[in-house]
Amino acid sequence: MSATTQPGAVSPPPVRGRTRRLRHGVPVEPIGLRLLKGLALLVLCAVVVLPFVGVLATSLAGREQIAQSGGLVLWPSQPTLEAYRSIFAGGVVTQALQVSLVVTIGGTLLSLAATCLVAYALAQRELFGKKVILMIFLISMLFSPGMIPTYLTVRQVGLLDSLWALILPTMVSAFNVVVMRAFFMNLPSELTESAQIDGASEFRVFTRIVLPLSKAVLAVIGLFYAVGYWNAFFNALLYINDATKWPMQLVLRTYVVNDVQMGSAELGSEVVPPQPAIQMAILVISIVPILIIYPFLQKHFAKGVLTGAVKG
Amino acid sequence: MAEVQTRPAPSESQSDAPRDSSPPPRRRRRPWYQRLWRDRMYLLFTLPALLIIVVFHYLPLIGNVIAFKDYQPYIGVWESPWNGLENFSIIWDGDPAFLAALRNTLILTALQSVFVFPAPILLALLLNSLLSENIKRLVQSVLYLPHFLSWVMVVALFQQILGGSGLLNNFLRSNGYDAVRILGNPDTFYALLTSQVIWKDTGWATILFLAALSQINAHLYEAAAVDGAGRWRQLWHVTLPGLKGIIILLFILRLGDSLSVGFEQILLQQAAVGRNVSEVLDTYVYNNGVLGGNWGVSAAVGLVKGVVGVLLVLGANKLAHRFGEEGVYR
């Protein structure tokens, strides 16, 4: 990747009185600079990783240790799953988890279906009204309608306090449509044409030939949609007043960020572990899905982001 | 770096042009109803997405007319009486709450342009200078992660580390120092916001810079080295010019967004520090409109903000062309 490690770059001859050896055109770094770089990287990674460690440790820590430290601990001396047992006992958190999973999985499937259908249609060589439809999507990226009119529209459509309000308004991202269309346009047209000559319908060609060839791009875009649905906080705040329909992000805000205490009524369990442990367990539970799909995301995203960015 | 685009507009027209402008020769275009019938399946494919975009994007876009109305919830948008530019008077007359929100927004934008914008460039240079691909990849995967967390999670994490009973203060207290009040403190609020943005997005933002760096021709470095340029001169004369295009492009996009600063992030932490320092335009629209019921006025502020944002992008893009750069679109 980097210019300094280009294979095939021949080390040039020693330069003008410089005795330092060159490696691919770049002078070998003095040891001090290398140490400094290593230290900087270590600090940066620690700054990212340490909060996660503290949160996980506290969620597992016992009563005494939390009382002793007055809050966060870095290593649980006697790990216990009490906090997790209490939030999975059927109370507020369990419910929110179900809501979030339904919205994320259902939303992602709907988003993917709508996005790839429209992208495939717009990738056709000839399509009645193609320019107009394309412009509708492109222009929507430039002008965002604003919070108040969007809220009033969702209310007008009757979606307040419905889980559909967490899916429909963000279901289609014009950017993803454009990225996916670019991908479909690069598929060899011989494949689809031969199937069409054999008498397959448009839908059949799409599901039997095009989609199997597009697994990678479907994965990337699906994962981005999924992260979006899982993380969506503000639209839930706007549209969902009924606390039984709260997704995880609202629970996280109320009980962790705003520090509202959870009793046995909210937890749905007799045992009430110390608040820091409950809070950190909630945080862990909401982060874990992201951590699970992160490796998959990472495998694709550099490619996905760049193909989208470069080809438009 | 002209080819790295984050908006698709330019290549759209390029990729379409040759196909659309060169219809098969010697065949007259069929009448529209025949083409409509021929494409009926594909048009059906476009329907779900089109419906969503029209209902949840274009309908609200038209719904902005309530900025010019005295909106009354029980009558509805269309029946509410017009009141001209009355809702905008809050902007022209300089309502103190609005002015405070505007001021805070501009301060935060300035802070973020100075501290947040260059951070990924520096980090990308550091990552790019690593000789070991494995270490580089490992560091990248750690540093990209926070981008995928929601703001609620990030704010919660920061509270656990910097809050009153957080890791930092526990450490200070157990070593005999006084606890420091970082959260809920108006004096440190902007620093807190800025550091949260840096923590969350710096790693992710390096992607485009790293892509640009990888496209700099290695021979340029060799040539510079042969000419006696040391490490720093190579950075100045080879690396930075190679990054110029992408830096300008991203700065344009940043400029277009300069009236939106961390809406969710601020909303989550507003209660602790008070609206005086924390109110920005987006939270003003939310607090005044959705919570306060001043629909018309809030919609007016939102509309002005949106229009100014589009003008800023267009203006910055023109400016980029004047400097001979590609910009977001042509």
* Relative helix content of chain A: 55-70%
Q: Please write the CATH class name of the largest domain in chain A.
A: Mainly Alpha
Derived structural class of chain A: mainly alpha
Strand element count of chain A? 2
Shape of chain A: globular
Radius of gyration of chain B: 25 Å
| CATH homologous superfamily designation of chain B | MetI-like
The helical percent of chain B reads 55-70%
The tally of structural domains of chain B comes to 1
How far the N terminus sits from the C terminus of chain A, by CA atoms, comes to 22 Å
Give a written overview of the molecule:
The complex is a heterodimer of chains A (312) and B (330). With 312 residues, chain A is mainly alpha-helical. Chain A has 2 domains: 25-80, no CATH class; 86-311, Orthogonal Bundle (MetI-like fold), CATH 1.10.3720.10. Helices cover 65% and strands 1% of the residues of chain A. Chain A has helices spanning 31-60, 63-69, 82-87, 92-122, 130-142, 147-156, 174-185, 189-197, 202-213, 215-231, 234-239, 248-257, 264-267, 275-311, and strands at 22-23, 26-27. In chain A, strands 1-2 form a two-stranded antiparallel sheet. In chain A, a hairpin with a 2-residue loop joins strand 1 (22-23) and strand 2. The longest helix of chain A is centred in the C-terminal third of the chain and has 37 residues, at 275-311. Chain A is globular and about 75 Å long. Chain B has a single domain (9-27, 94-322), classed as MetI-like fold (Orthogonal Bundle), CATH 1.10.3720.10. Chain B is built from 16 helices and no strands. Chain B has helices at 9-21, 32-38, 40-63, 89-92, 96-116, 118-128, 133-144, 151-162, 167-174, 189-214, 218-226, 231-256, 263-273, 275-278, 281-291, 295-322. Chain B has 330 residues and is mainly alpha-helical. In chain B, helix 5 packs across helix 10, helix 6 (118-128) crosses helix 10 and helix 10 (189-214) crosses helix 12 (231-256). At the A-B interface, strand 1, strand 2, helix 1, helix 4 and helix 5 of A face helix 1, helix 2, helix 3, helix 6 and helix 7 of B.
